[in-house]
C-alpha cells in the first residue's frame, strides 16, 4: 500500500512518530485501521493521533486529549502554540473569532479555514470556562479561502485593507478595520509567539 503525505503541511508535527513503519513496512501494529469506502483512518491510541487518508492521500490529522475516544493525550508540540489546557476563550484570544464555529446540540468547535485547524471541545456551552479541548483536526489550508475578520467575523473583501498583527511574520489574525484590531490585538499579542 502506498500513501501520499506530501500534500499535508502538518507532516512535520508527526514526523517523529514511527510513521515510517506505517508507510514502508506495512507494519500497522501500533496503528489500528478503520476503513470506510475510500477513507482510511490509522489510529494510535497511545500516541493520541489518528491519520485520515482519502484515496491514500493524507487528508487530515486528528490529535487527541487524554481519555477521548480511548486515546491518550498527544504529547508532541501542537501548531500555533496551542496547548490542551487552553479553553475556548484562550483560543479566541490567540486566533480570534471565526464564522465557522459550531455548537447547539453538539459540542462546540472553532474552525479556522485559512489556518487549517479545527479545535473541538468536550462540552456544548460557550460560557463554560472549564470546557476542555477534546481533539484538534489539522488540514491543509485553502489558499483561495476568504479571510474573515478575527473580531466581527465579516468577510474581508479582496480590495480592502487588511489589518494584521504587529509581529511581521504572524498570519494568525486578520482585521477588517483599525477599530476591530484595537478590540482584540492586546489579547492576541500576549499569546502571539512570532
Ligand atoms: Zn471586523
Ligand atoms: Zn500575532
Summarize the structure.
The protein has 194 residues and is of the alpha+beta class. It has two domains: 11-139, protein yfey like fold, CATH 2.60.460; 147-191, no CATH class. It has helices at residues 19-24, 88-95, 178-191, and strands at 32-36, 39-44, 49-54, 57-64, 101-102, 109-112, 117-121, 133-139, 163-164, 174-175.
Structure description:
It contains 3 helices and 10 strands, in the order H-E-E-E-E-H-E-E-E-E-E-E-H. With 194 residues, it is of the alpha+beta class. The chain folds into 2 domains: 11-139, Sandwich (protein yfey like fold); 147-191, no CATH class. A hairpin with a 6-residue loop joins strand 5 (101-102) and strand 6 (109-112). The mean pLDDT is 89. One zinc ion is lined by residues 149, 151-152, 154, 175-177, 180. Residues 149, 151-152, 154, 175-177, 180 line the site of one zinc ion.
Keywords:
10 strands; binds zinc ion; globular; 24% strand; 14% helix; single chain; 194 residues; protein yfey like fold; 2 domains
| Tally of discrete structural domains | 2
Q: Can you count the beta strands?
A: 10
Strand order of the largest sheet: 1-2-3-4-8-7-6-5
Largest β-sheet summary: 8 strands, antiparallel
How are the SSEs ordered, and which strands pair?
Elements: H1 19-24, E1 32-36, E2 39-44, E3 49-54, E4 57-64, H2 88-95, E5 101-102, E6 109-112, E7 117-121, E8 133-139, E9 163-164, E10 174-175, H3 178-191
Antiparallel strand pairs: 1-2, 2-3, 3-4, 4-8, 5-6, 6-7, 7-8, 9-10
Helix pairs in contact: 2-3
One zinc ion (ZN) binds at residues 149, 151-152, 154, 175-177, 180.
Amino acid at each position: 500500500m502506498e500513501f501520499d503525505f506530501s500534500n499535508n503541511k502538518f507532516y512535520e508535527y508527526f514526523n517523529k512518530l514511527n510513521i515510517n513503519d506505517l508507510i514502508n513496512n506495512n507494519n500497522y501494529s501500533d496503528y489500528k485501521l478503520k476503513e470506510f469506502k475510500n477513507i482510511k483512518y490509522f489510529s494510535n491510541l497511545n500516541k493520541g493521533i489518528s491519520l485520515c487518508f482519502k484515496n491514500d492521500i493524507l487528508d487530515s490529522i486528528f490529535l487527541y486529549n487524554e481519555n477521548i475516544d480511548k486515546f491518550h493525550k498527544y504529547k508532541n508540540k501542537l501548531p500555533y502554540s496551542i496547548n490542551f489546557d487552553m479553553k475556548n476563550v484562550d483560543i479566541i484570544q490567540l486566533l480570534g473569532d471565526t464564522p465557522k464555529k459550531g455548537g447547539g446540540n453538539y459540542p462546540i468547535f472553532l474552525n479556522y479555514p485559512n489556518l487549517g485547524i479545527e479545535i473541538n471541545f468536550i462540552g456544548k456551552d460557550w460560557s463554560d470556562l472549564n470546557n476542555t479541548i477534546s481533539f484538534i483536526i489539522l488540514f491543509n489550508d485553502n489558499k483561495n479561502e476568504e479571510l474573515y475578520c478575527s473580531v466581527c467575523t465579516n468577510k474581508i473583501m479582496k480590495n480592502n485593507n487588511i489589518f494584521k498583527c504587529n509581529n511581521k511574520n504572524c498570519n494568525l489574525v486578520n482585521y477588517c478595520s483599525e477599530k476591530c484590531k484595537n478590540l482584540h490585538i492586546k489579547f492576541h499579542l500576549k499569546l502571539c509567539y512570532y
